[in-house]
Amino acid sequence: MSRKIILYDTTLRDGTQGEHVNLSAEDKLRIAAKLEDFGIDYIEGGWPGSNPKDARFFELAGKASFKSSRITAFSSTRRPGIRPEDDQNIKALLKTEVETLAIFGKSWDLHALEILGVSLEENLEMIADSIAYLKKEGRKVIFDAEHFFDGYKNNPAYALKTLNAAINSGVDTVVLCDTNGGSMPHEVTSIIKDVMPHVGVLVGIHAHNDCGLALANSLAAVKAGAGMVQGTINGYGERCGNADLISVMGNLQLKMGYQCVSSEALKHLTELSLFVSELANVPPFNQRPFVGKSAFAHKAGVHVSAITKNPAAYEHVVPELVGNRRRVLVSELSGKSNIEYKSREMGIRLGADGVDSQKIVEEIKRLEDQGYQFDAAEGSLELLIKKVLGQFEEPFTLESFRVTIEKDRAGESTSHATIKITVGNDQEITAAEGDGPVNALDNALRKALTKFYPHINEMALVDFKVRVIDGSEATAAKVRVQIESRDEREIWTTIGVSKDIIEASWQALADSVQYRLIKGD
């Protein structure tokens, strides 16, 4: 049976120290519930003595039902010259009434002497007193040995004394922290192998990513004997972040044969990553290993040709094992294999002789030379393929549009659009206002089409992006506009390119609406 690795999630505490990451107490409770459903062993809720939000989280968590995961409160050892029972941070820890508490103490002599300004002996007493007091209060205690690897490299004997102070006081787990994120995997391996014979309790690893090695150091620590890995979902955290538990789970379970969560839970790994990303209001990173949108995306024609024969040729794991899916992209780098794969995916039939595929490839290369980017706009790609094949029947035809912007002395600006379209034998002229010219044009188009296609109201525009293709021509440069739209069934992206931003916006907008209309009611 594979060895079980304990997962300790600190997204709600260490993760929120990352730039642009902000979670309300209610957000944290929702994430904690998701983590428990997923099978995470420990969920660190925050530092209750540091701010009202974390204290409120523990109040909410106390009223919720956490059965399998252990909600954990975090704080520091007692302050110098104060008894544990009189220390406000220790009092706040106990007030949470959670069973498991995590405290950190200094394992680097530099920090004890220069940062805390205490003697090395006093630092050991702070660790021992705090843990002994919390154990006397009936709590399980995890000791985070802060800066342990730097401390061990500088003064190994003293770093070990800090662990012994915790162990002799009854600590349940010691966690070795690479707090500055500067250790190398071979150093982590060597130091943990040195430490393990001196420690009779569970050993954990807490790695930061300042050298891009938090994941590598976490895996190396497990290989060397560590039984707990601390990290955050998506690697959120201070500076360059923490070890990403998403990649930790994927590698430990699928590559190294350890058990972290159930295989069924692992199939929801992508969902977990996106859920936390949404609540943290941090855009998903498409290149994130295992769960990113691009993790199993194939663009080169040679690659696509190979995966149609055997996906293992260019995929290190089956995407569905982590809840992801294979994607084939189409661009000027594509060959006929890409087009044939995407056409099957879209339900479009091509001729068997390869002539249709070649026509589509040539048209894509021509348009991408002008600035289009179809790997990022699959809605426009589907319309293009159907147009090249003569399988597209326009649901409406633009006759003309006019957009005007008016700005008054008070600084207020308003946009108006009029549009004339033809649907079958009928013509419709409509006007509308909007928050900006593109919104006004969108409103006018929808107003004109509603009479013919009432279900147009089911779609909504959710994102609008403008990129300058070549800045050398300054304000006369070509721009690329991408519009992301959605309805109850799907999300799709469309594209437009022009030196006129309104024209480029119209192209993307028209494609977006046409894509929705050809899908039917």
Task: Summarize this structure briefly.
The protein has helices spanning 25-38, 52-63, 88-95, 109-116, 120-136, 148-154, 156-168, 185-195, 214-224, 245-254, 263-266, 269-280, 301-309, 336-346, 355-369, 378-388, 437-450, 501-518, and strands at 6-9, 42-46, 70-76, 100-106, 140-146, 173-178, 202-207, 228-231, 297-298, 327-328, 397-407, 413-423, 426-434, 460-468, 479-486, 491-498. By secondary structure, the chain is α/β, with parallel strands linked by helices.
What's the number of extended β-strand segments? 16
Please report the distance between the alpha carbons of the first and last residues: 52 Å
Helix content: 25-40%
What's the rounded overall pLDDT mean? 91
Estimated share of beta-strand residues: 15-25%
Strand neighbour order, sheet with most strands:
1-2-3-4-5-6-7-8
Q: Number of folding domains?
A: 3
Q: What low-confidence regions span 5 or more consecutive residues with pLDDT below 50?
A: none
Assigned CATH class of the largest domain: Alpha Beta
Fill in the CATH topology of the largest domain. TIM Barrel
Task: Report the total helices.
Answer: 18
Q: Tell me about the biggest sheet?
A: 8 strands, parallel, barrel
Overall SS class: alpha/beta
Please identify which CATH superfamily of the largest domain we are dealing with. Answer: Aldolase class I
Q: Report the CATH architecture of the largest domain.
A: Alpha-Beta Barrel
* Cα shape: elongated
Specify Rg, calculated over alpha carbons. Answer: 29 Å
Catalytic activity: pyruvate + acetyl-CoA + H2O = (3R)-citramalate + CoA + H(+)
Keywords: Acyltransferase, Amino-acid biosynthesis, Branched-chain amino acid biosynthesis, Isoleucine biosynthesis, Transferase
Domain Pyruvate carboxyltransferase: 5-267
Organism: uncultured Desulfobacterium sp
